[in-house]
Amino acid sequence: MKKITSLLLLLLWVESSLFAQEKPIKNVILMIPDGTSLSVVSAARWYQRYNHPEITHLNIDPYICGTILTYSSNAPIGDSAPTTSCYMTGYPSRAGFISTYPPADPGNDILPMNPDLAYQPLATLMEAARLVQNKSTGLVFTCEFPHATPADCAAHSYDRENYDWIAPQMVHNGVDVVIGGGVKILTPPLKDYLEKEGYKVFLNDMNNYRTCEKPRMWALFRDTDMSYDIDRDPSTEPSLAEMTQKAIQLLSKNENGFLLMVEGSKVDWAAHANDAAALITDMLAFDKACGVAFDFAKENGETVVVVVPDHGNSGFSIGSSKCTKYSQLTKEDLFGNISRIKTSASGLVEKLQKANVSRLKEIFIELTGISLTDDEYTQLMQCSDYNQSFLSDEERMKGSKLVQVVAKIIDGHTCFGFTTHGHTGEEVFLANYDPRSKGLTGHHTNIELNRYLYQALNLNTPLDSLTDKYFAKHTDVFTNYTYTIVKKNGAPVLQVKGKKAKLEITPNTNMIKVNNQDYKLKSVIVYVDKNNTFYVPRSLSNLLKGGKGGE
């Protein structure tokens, strides 16, 4: 009995010693394949196995460990804005809301929402990592930079479409490395600000982007979103894996560590378009980026990697009622045709619009392997926006779009199914690498995932307290001062007068004027027109007394 007790004590000592020797986490990489249902993961794995029989697993496979229930504040099916917002802030929010507290919707709210907090900007994990821990932060994506998922990390708005608010917030919010799409959206004033702050800015500049060693960099490609991976020209656009590698390389220069969000943005877009070829190949491109992150984390020993979609999309399925005896279909039946497709539906449309109509059937065969039937050919001719069609406007189908018809024709030659062009409400997969003994497994909610990321970052300041510190209502901060909101160049400006200073505060930036002199804050100013309120750091009141502010 004494020997057994001694052995147990020895085992407990060894176990506690191992835990004590675990390194603290310095880096967190959050990877989001936007709008990716589990069936898309399965299709990508089978597609890869069909084309490369020796590769039977995805990079994420060893780390798949659970599921996440993701939802909006008042609806089970969320869009990217409120779902990633919850990952970043810990609060579910409404459709279209970017890291902003939603209005209450009694009777429909899934959790009770406080009506007094409606439209309150909510501090994000990325803001917290920078402000509290002096970590570097990074965003990698294939959409345009103010799109919902990257915006959720570094901006605040109740309207995800309002790039006039979101883009400048993201530029002024201190993100160290940004790589993705949106050249046209980075206006000259925004570019000038970045360069004055010491950033290297590369616009459609592959060579200099690749050789950059500066720890602060913005590199954008194409006017808005980047290409689907199946359409990507490697000489002009980097892969998601390369962008992830570059971001990690630059962010790793900070001895305090980093937080990086990587989004496979256009998996979601392909699902919306019911474009199976683009959907599967973009998922595989994302999985390669996951391989980069996992390899770094395993070698580094101080990095947590979380892979999780923000929601499902399109009801995609392997197998469809349009294919008889689908349970007997071979791998060739299921993945042969899709593997012969060399372009996305939108990429094919771009080529069709530039080529003479006489080459339509030839181009279709060349890029999809599909020989058009007479009925399919007629459908294409009838598209209202097909500029090469020989039909008159009167003979065409109003509202019939070429990209939609192309996608439908291609889909008709596969045995995949789609139930919708929109989002779906099933829980999403979770993959997690954690070098400690504290990985997240099982089924969790989006709120619980936020808590895990918060804990992994070793944050000891609650996000709510950061929200109160950096995003207080101006009516509370300046309650003892004279203030007015005026319009300048069509934009609201908050003017505040004190005995020793006068402030002029413009929204969507971290720059204010103190006695007509520029003054830089650590956080961005947010204005909400719904309640005519500026959300500002509480310490700004100190500036009116002649002290320091913006801390």
Report on the architecture of this protein.
- This protein has 551 residues and is α/β, with parallel strands linked by helices.
- It is 37% helix and 18% strand.
- The strands form five sheets. A ten-stranded mixed β-sheet has the order 5-6-4-3-7-1-8-13-2-14, sandwiched between helices.
- Strand 16 (482-488) and strand 17 form a beta hairpin.
- The longest helix is centred in the middle third of the chain and has 25 residues, at 276-300.
What general form does the structure show?
globular
**Largest sheet, described in full?**
10 strands, mixed
SS content category: alpha/beta
In terms of DSSP E residues, the strand content is: 15-25%
Number of helices: 20
Calculate Rg over CA atoms. 26 Å
Low-confidence runs: 1-5, 11-20
Instruction: Tell me the distance between the termini.
Output: 61 Å
Q: Any key phrases for this structure?
A:
37% helix; 20 helices; 18% strand; single chain; ten-stranded mixed sheet
Summary, kept brief:
This protein has 551 residues and is α/β, with parallel strands linked by helices. The chain has 20 helices and 22 strands. The protein is globular and about 80 Å long.
List the helices and strands and how they pair.
Layout: H1 2-21, E1 27-33, H2 38-51, E2 64-69, H3 80-89, H4 125-133, E3 136-144, H5 148-154, H6 163-172, E4 177-181, H7 188-196, E5 200-203, H8 206-211, E6 217-221, H9 240-251, E7 258-264, H10 265-272, H11 276-300, E8 303-307, E9 312-313, E10 317-318, H12 331-339, H13 345-354, H14 360-368, H15 374-381, H16 402-412, E11 416-417, E12 423-424, E13 428-433, E14 442-445, H17 446-456, H18 463-470, E15 472-473, H19 474-477, E16 482-488, E17 491-497, E18 502-505, E19 511-514, E20 517-520, E21 526-528, E22 533-536, H20 540-543
Parallel strand pairs: 1-7, 1-8, 2-14, 3-4, 3-7, 4-6, 5-6
Antiparallel strand pairs: 2-13, 8-13, 9-12, 10-11, 15-22, 16-17, 17-18, 18-19, 19-20, 21-22
Helix pairs in contact: 2-11, 2-12, 3-5, 3-17, 9-11, 10-11, 13-16
